Amino acid sequence: MRILLTGKNGQLGRCFQDAVAGSKHELFAFDSTELNIASAQQVTAIFAEVKPDIVVNAAAYTAVDKAETESEMAHAVNEAGVKHLAQAAESLGIPVIHVSTDYVFDGLAVEPYKPSDQTAPQGVYGASKLAGEQALAQVATRYLVLRTAWVFSEYGNNFVKTMLRLATERNALSVVADQYGCPTYAGDLAKAILALCDQYEQTGELAWGVHHYCGDLPTSWHGFARTIFAKGLKHGAIDKIPQLTAISTDQYPTPAKRPEYSVLNTDTLAELGVQASNWLMALDRVMNKLQGNAK
Fold first, then answer.
1. In the UniProt record, does the keyword Transport occur (predicted)?
2. 63 and 10 in contact (C-beta within 8 Å)?
């Protein structure tokens, strides 16, 4: 099967390339310089050239705080870009697998969000991602939205790598303890998407619509940091654990409001045989990979 991947240099894009490398599929991967999805003309041209069987959209504007002042840019990629991909895919009669975010919710829930729950983004980033979901639903006949959260990997910039770096630079750190979510390893998300591509190739169908994919155990950013330091010390990624202080969101103001609670319910994907990410195990793998990269 010919898979067209956007956003190849992001965490998910790089992990997806790793996942496909051992498969029988042909992958056509593009970064934003090769395929700017905000340009309908570029999208049309690439689709005509590649003639893909399925599209995986890992391209996104993800600068959550900058989005508050760069709304136009966020919507150009996260909304208009998704619409362009949907239109091109629809013209070829092929499906789109699109990655979205927990930021489409307001964070006021007290139990894990289901795909069918009411959306209410609190900032520009979340609003732009929700607009992309809606644009996809309006244009595409067959599409699958995967909302995910708290993505980390051995690639790019993420919370895990930031914490490891700060542990070597500082003796004490303060981390927000009243925001809850599920860390997600990009490598596991990539494998989940590839499994869905396989299902589509075999059956010509999928459970179209919106699903959630994330890590299996909820935690806070403070809890996540504590786990990162413990595993970092065990794997030799750091030689000391800094003093870690729990603080409230109010004590760490940011331009964009974050959901206080964005744990996602992954049951609908589990019914398709796609299990949630075991992020504790994945964190060990990432530590090993980072150590291997450092040698």
1. no
2. no
